[in-house]
Amino acid sequence: MASDLSFVEYVCEQACLAGALSYKKMFGEYALYLDGRVVALICDNQVFLKPTAEARALMGEIVEATPYPGAKPQLRLGDELDDCALLKRLFITTALALPIPKAKPVKRRTV
Q1: Which of 18, 23, 31, 40 is the most buried (most CB within 10 A)?
Q2: Domain-by-domain residue ranges, the chain?
Q3: What is the DSSP letter of 74?
Q4: Sign of CA pseudo-dihedral 24, 75, 85, 38
Q5: Do the Cβ atoms of 27 and 21 come closer than 8 Å?
Q6: Per-residue pLDDT tens for 54-63?
Q7: Contact yes or no for 67/80 (Cβ under 8 A)
Q8: Model confidence, pTM
Q9: Torsion angle, CA of 39/45/58/74, rounded to 10 degrees?
Q10: Is residue 77 a contact partner of residue 87, using CB atoms and an 8 Å limit?
Q11: Contacting residues for 70 by C-beta, under 8 A, at least 6 apart
């Protein structure tokens, strides 16, 4: 079951990060980006945060689950979605803990 766009927009609004948090549709689901880093996935109207030690320290009860079959376990958010300040801290903390994505090489055309 694919996630609803309205749910994705709700999560982005709840995070109170204005334009810094964006989303992109991928394979029928969504990826959330902060500062160019994928910080979370939204699958089946559930939010899965990238697992970092920093995010674990902020969360009370930790629930790990896989967003789709074959994926590595991630931190599934539940009540954290209702706490704007906590959700914002979780996204920012996760983004800062993740490596900066490498720039893709420019493809040159040969004639």
Answers
A1: 40
A2: 5-97
A3: E
A4: negative
A5: no
A6: 999 999 889 9
A7: no
A8: 0.86
A9: -60
A10: yes
A11: none
